[in-house]
Specification:
By secondary structure, the protein is mostly helical. The protein contains 25 helices and 8 strands. The chain is about 60% helix and about 5% strand. Strands 4-3-5-6-7-8 form a 6-stranded mixed β-sheet. Helix 4 runs antiparallel to helix 5, helix 4 crosses helix 16 and helix 7 packs antiparallel against helix 14. It is elongated, with a radius of gyration of 30 Å. The N terminus is likely disordered.
Length: about 600
């Protein structure tokens, strides 16, 4: 098949075509997706990437500082954990627009390690947090190298949709206090929502702050569909200028970002005390698990939305290298961002050049103009995040899924409730559990059928679908549409015995049409051995047709091949029927 040139089709088709290339031909460059993107980069994308990077900067700075403080380290280290990881991921990360950096989902884990061990020493806190980033980076890189990225395939589309909807709801609720100009002390989406309602009832809302935030949100949403007007940038710049000129931060009490810390990160090895190694390693592994799960989900969602291919194993490598870069440059653990990534997407990001522009812009702010965003109101930042959260919500495709298969839609709603009630991280765990249950359910209670031969249709088919099908006297053709394993072994036996009991003529052979049976485990093999003894005692022989060779190999190891007899394994159902008719010569009325 001829591949379309990536340069003529944009990054989407280029990324889709490239994974099918021979790995040996790609060589070492396959570990550096950023270089491949740069090689195929089109100059027409640069304008979009620069604009998106500048828009992204308006979020990178305040959230970086905020998450640093929440993690127990000085605010400037949040900017260090923004600049270097973005540059590292641009080189090693496979996702076209995924944004990495400090994230709220990690702050509690980092703080739980840093706070008790640092003893109020800021330098020690930074060293502890940086070492956690290094541990997390090593774990993620190893996960990618040993190809554990398959875990992302556990989440079906409905569950991914509801997870992202739950994340959007969680993010939106978390920004409401800033939007109304007050703070709350609560954990979890539901308790936060209750605390917000109580604060509103107590009259703590600053309505000037709310009007500034509401104006920002309205501007972003109104300009969201525009291809030429960057709504986020216009809104943020507009309210920043208005707050500064009208002195709203002083007269009306509108909270603003203030002067940024100044300075760039330098390479540093974070040394920790020997006594701190165990909690730091445990904390780093916990961070790796959280960021691994979060990034896997977000990466798959945006890969689907942008029509690009993303290697999940390379995604883990990119995440790990970004964490290593953060750790060695005075940062702390980072993850993908479910609030900043949609900002980059909405602003028109084409490639990871957006992240590079954002990183360089943050660095320039630190060096040259630390006062530039001094009057940026925090309520405007909340509005930006809320607008991003709204963009994550998926409704239309879920309606289609509800029409097609309602039980999958209900499972996804359970996932949404779990994320909203428990928070993002427990919600990920719940989503994975639901996905596994969904998979097991299909194999636990699969479809099975007795087969007959309908007139005018080739082959043997389900007699419930073709009631006029002809049966071979003394022969039961039974199809099982799933692997045979511990969860469905007893059901298989019961269905087989029911089929034998329902036969209109005394049964001599039971032929299992086994093409859908892709595996047999020990429990199922023992069940087959016992079933064979039961049926033989009744004068019935078990046969298999269309069984795959790898499954045959398993039956040989289990000893079933010798017990059943090699002569009772047939390549097709037709051959099995012919052999039966040769041996037992049934009446002509059969077939």
């Amino acid at each position: 098949m001829n591949q379309v040139s990536p340069s003529s089709t944009g990054p989407e088709l280029g990324r889709i075509a490239r994974p099918h290339a021979n790995v040996n031909e790609r060589g070492w460059i396959r570990w550096l997706p950023g270089l491949e993107t740069l090689r195929d980069y089109e100059i027409a994308w640069l304008r979009h990437d620069i604009m998106a990077g500048l828009v992204l900067t308006t979020m990178l700075v305040p959230v970086g500082v905020a998450y640093a403080v929440a993690s127990g380290v000085p605010g400037i280290h949040g900017l260090y954990a923004t600049i270097i990881p973005l540059l590292a991921y641009a080189l090693f990360g496979p996702s076209r627009i995924l944004v990495l950096g400090p994230d709220s989902s990690l702050t509690a884990v980092i703080l739980a390690v840093v706070l008790p061990l640092s003893g109020g020493d800021a330098l020690r806190a930074v060293a502890l947090a940086s070492m956690m980033a290094i541990v997390s980076g090593v774990v993620c890189v190893l996960a990618g190298v040993v190809r554990l990225g398959f875990i992302t395939e556990l989440l079906s589309k409905p569950i991914r949709y509801r997870y992202m909807n739950g994340i959007a709801l969680t993010v939106l609720i978390s920004q409401l206090p800033k939007l109304f100009g007050f703070s709350i002390d609560a954990e979890g989406p539901l308790s936060s929502l209750w605390a917000v309602a109580k604060a509103m009832w107590d009259g703590r809302a600053n309505w000037t702050t709310f009007l500034v935030g509401a104006a920002t949100l309205a501007t972003i949403l109104l300009l969201k569909g525009s291809k030429h007007l960057p709504g986020v940038l216009i809104a943020v710049v507009g309210v920043t200028v208005a707050v500064g000129m009208l002195n709203l931060s002083g007269d009306a009490g509108v909270a603003v970002l203030g002067t940024l810390p100044q300075g760039l990160p330098a390479f540093s090895i974070p040394w920790v005390h020997v006594a701190d190694i165990v909690p730091v390693v445990i904390g780093g592994c916990a961070v790796a698990l959280v960021s691994f799960a979060d990034t896997s989900v977000l990466s798959r969602v945006y890969a689907a939305r942008t029509g690009t291919y993303v290697d999940p194993n390379q995604e883990m490598v990119g995440l790990g290298v970004a964490n290593l870069a953060a750790g060695f440059f005075q940062g702390f653990p980072i993850s993908s961002s479910s609030s900043r990534t949609p900002v980059a997407e909405a602003a028109g990001a084409k490639t990871q050049v957006t992240g590079v522009v954002g990183a360089l812009a943050v660095a320039l702010l630190l060096v040259a103009t630390p006062d530039l965003l001094r009057y940026l109101p925090t309520t405007a930042l909340a509005a930006v995040v809320i607008a991003s959260a709204i963009g994550l919500i998926e409704i239309s495709d879920l309606r289609r899924i509800y029409r097609i298969q309602r039980w999958e839609c209900w499972l996804s709603i359970v996932c949404l409730i779990g994320v909203a009630a428990l928070g993002a991280i427990p919600g990920i765990g719940l989503a994975i559990v639901i996905a596994v249950i969904e998979f097991l359910w299909d194999g636990w209670r699969p479809h099975s059928a007795v087969l007959g031969r309908p007139d005018g249709v080739a082959g043997y088919h389900d007699i419930t679908r073709y009631p006029e099908s002809r049966l071979v006297p003394g022969l039961v053709l039974f199809r099982w549409d799933a692997p045979l394993f511990f969860a469905n072994a007893e059901l298989f036996r019961d269905k087989v015995l029911d089929a034998v009991a329902a036969s209109p003529t005394p049964v001599r052979w039971l032929v299992i049409a086994a093409e859908p049976v892709t595996s047999v485990d020990v429990t199922a093999a023992d069940m087959l051995a016992e079933l064979d003894r039961t049926l033989r005692a009744a004068g019935i022989t078990i046969c298999f047709a269309e069984l795959k060779d790898p499954v045959k190999d398993k039956l040989k190891r289990f000893g079933l091949f010798d017990q059943l007899g090699e002569e009772y394994f047939f390549p097709t159902v037709d051959v099995a029927v012919e052999n039966y008719q040769t041996v037992h010569k049934p009446a002509p009325a059969g077939v």
